Amino acid sequence: MAPSRFFIPRFLTFLLLLAGSAIAQEAEEKRAPQQLQPGQTISREVAPAKLNADLIRTMTAYRVSLEKLLKIHEQEFKKKAGEVQERRGFYEKGYISRLELDQSQRELAGAEAKIREVEQKIAETKTAIAEAAIFEELLRLPPLRAGEYLERGALIRYNGKAAWSVADTGKIQKFFSEKFGRLLPISALGQTPFHDRMRFDHHDAVDVALHPDSSEGRALMAYLRQAGIPYMAFRNGVPGSASGAHIHIGRPSRRAALR
């Protein structure tokens, strides 16, 4: 009988130790950050807003740096333009060769190309900021049925039924040039290095630098609706500013299309 008297306390001790270990493990799990399981997503109530705010801050800082770089290139262009003017006078007087004049003109063209490149990047950034600024409003909107049109504040959206591909851009360009006598002002055609950096899926989208309330913008949107081509239009990127206003032809980027 002696062994049984010792067996019960030892067994209870074992259970207490086991329970204590389980409690400690549970407390540790509560303190540890939760890991996402396969197929699990971050709550849309918190993550998109924070990620979007971070994205806007990053793009705004990038735009500011580009604007500073643009001023440097503009100063360099002004300097090169003065050199060309001076060397043209020297050439006419026979002081320098034609090769030297041509070299200065090539340098001027290179300086101008740098300005155009930075201006393009600034335009892309403003466009992306406009789309990001409207991101949270997109999340709050009900999903659009095929063929449905919605206009709310700075956002206009049409969920066209037509199958759209960036390869179809030519017919839109043809319509615009025939109607207005100038090229369609495309600011982003398909995926660009900028969209890669900002992780926007823009493969089947075209951004057009037209204000949706302008006569050209309204005509373009009317054409798109008639053709059943989906689009979104942004009246402004930042409240109180017209910067970033554009028409996005195609479905919303996958980063924004959470509905």
Description:
This protein is an alpha+beta fold and 259 residues long. The protein has two domains: 47-136; 145-249, no CATH class. The chain has seven helices and six strands; from the N terminus they run ααααββαβαβαββ. The protein has helices at residues 2-31, 47-92, 98-133, 135-140, 169-180, 193-198, 215-227; strands spanning 149-152, 155-158, 186-189, 206-208, 231-234, 246-249. The protein has a six-stranded antiparallel beta sheet with strand order 1-2-5-6-4-3, sandwiched between helices. A hairpin with a 2-residue loop joins strand 1 (149-152) and strand 2 (155-158). Helix 2 runs antiparallel to helix 3 (98-133) and helix 5 packs across helix 7 (215-227). The longest helix is centred in the N-terminal third of the chain and has 46 residues, at 47-92. The N and C termini lie far apart (71 Å). Residues 1-46 and 238-242 have low confidence and may be disordered.
Rounded mean pLDDT score? 77
Helical residue percent? 55-70%
- What form results from the Cα inertia axes? elongated
The total number of structural domains is: 2
Question: What is the structural class?
Answer: alpha+beta
Task: Kindly report how far apart the N and C termini lie.
Answer: 71 Å
The value of Rg in angstroms is 30 Å
Number of helices in the DSSP assignment: 7
Report the count of strand segments: 6
Percentage beta strand:
5-15%
Q: Report the major sheet.
A: 6 strands, antiparallel
Point out poorly predicted stretches: 1-46, 238-242
Strand order of the largest sheet: 1-2-5-6-4-3
SSE sequence, one letter per element? HHHHEEHEHEHEE
